[in-house]
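Marked as duplicate of an earlier ticket. Keeping the data here for the record.
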Amino acid sequence: MSEFALKSICQRFKRGVAKITCSAIEIDVNQPYVTSGSTDDEVCGSAFFVPAQYLYLSKNNGSKRYLVTNAHVIDCCPTKTIALTFPELGKCKMWAKVILACQPLDFAILEVDAIYNEHLEKEVGRTFANIVRSIPAVKPRKKIVDTTEEVSLEATGIGFPLASEDCHISSGKISGRHSHYLQINASINGGNSGGPLFDNKGNLIGVCAASFDESEGITLAIPWHDIDKVLKYYWDKKALAIQCPSLGVATKKLIDAHVAVRGWRESNVKGALVSKVFPTSQLSDLGLKKGYVITSIGDCCNEFDIDRNGLVNLKHQLDKVPFQSLNVLLLLDPESTFIRIYDGRRTKTLAFTLSVQSGILRNCMPVLEPIPCAIFGGVVFCQFFNNHIEDIEDDTLDPGIVQFLSESKGSESAVVITAFRLPSSILQQGYMIRKLTVLKKVNKKKVKTIEQLKKILGQAIKKYTTDNKARYIELEIGGTSTEVIYVDLDLAFRLEPMLYCTPGYKREHSVISIDMLQSRKRSFDNLS
């Protein structure tokens, strides 16, 4: 990049890049009411102003303005309130709030408003409106960056590396792609995360996100094309946390033996073999079944042939990628998406609207989106997320969770046991239960969510408070092979007051409330 071009980009956009500082805590995903760290702990990163129309927000939204950063920079902020500092404002802070976070694509949107920045005029002698008016508007490039034709495209990143007080400039060249990220041969240190990435014409092409070992000098950036697609089609303007689209299908490699045994007419068929169609997937309603082959995927503008390993060639990058990856799905027009399938006799086309799948296993941001949980008999039950697997040692896991994941392919919601609070009435009864044991049924009723669990247990416990014959609750737990245990409510009620006295115990999460304890005591006194 010429010195003139670099200087021009710096002069135009450096003033619109902010340093982010926010308090940070960690949530124990196995006991999601337990926090570690303190509000004195801070995380630093970068953010930059983007005009509302490029975020599909109203331009006529009063004094509100918007910034973009990385989700991983702000996902530990419990208040959702972010402090922004600009070098020209000195130590005076501008305040923003988180209005959107997309963990799969690692980006977030912050909102600033005059209402909570009225202090600026007193502290620096300039109004909020005057300050934001002076910030140059970036112009995002929606066109996809073609790393086959635009290899060695020069790029410039701006941010606050290593929590510095002044923003720094990093320049390099785009060398290819890593997963769905742009790969740049320039070192961008921690603190630059969330900063803008510009091409040599000053167009915004991405958001700096991560870096490998500094000695390698490799940085990853989220393409603006992908962010634009998610905002345009998959954000309802209401949800704080949003997900990316998926097909709701699990596939595996198609091998010759499978084709031969099935006696298919087309012995040279190419594609990915369907191993499971998720219950919530539109493709299930359209007739896609286990054992069919997905031969291609496309929309009104493109069609990509799938090989037997489930990979496709894309025009804008050299390496083949999985056909269900974000590289592919975020290229497609959701309204005209289709797949072609082979059922052993003929090829069919299934047209559908590409969307976000509900009820599937995913990662969550536990500080921004609380994990539903309940405590019963000293056992902590949680809605199951990928985070739980990452946070528990292998030797403490229930083997049934592996069977559950293998069979469901992550397509089902589940409630799992994640921790134990002592004294636990269930453990005192002699049952040996391990973490991540799946809860399947309560009193023969299926349980998929914490809300269902609370409702069923609440009804059973309420009945017990007036009827001693309803003393036992039946729990069916396990993976493929199940076990039935019987929870003694009499013991659970006697130990519950002791649990109240243990450090960190949250009464509001217990399904046995104080009112229930008192109601049971009154019933017992009346019998006496």
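See parent ticket for discussion. The first strand starts at residue 17 and ends at 23.
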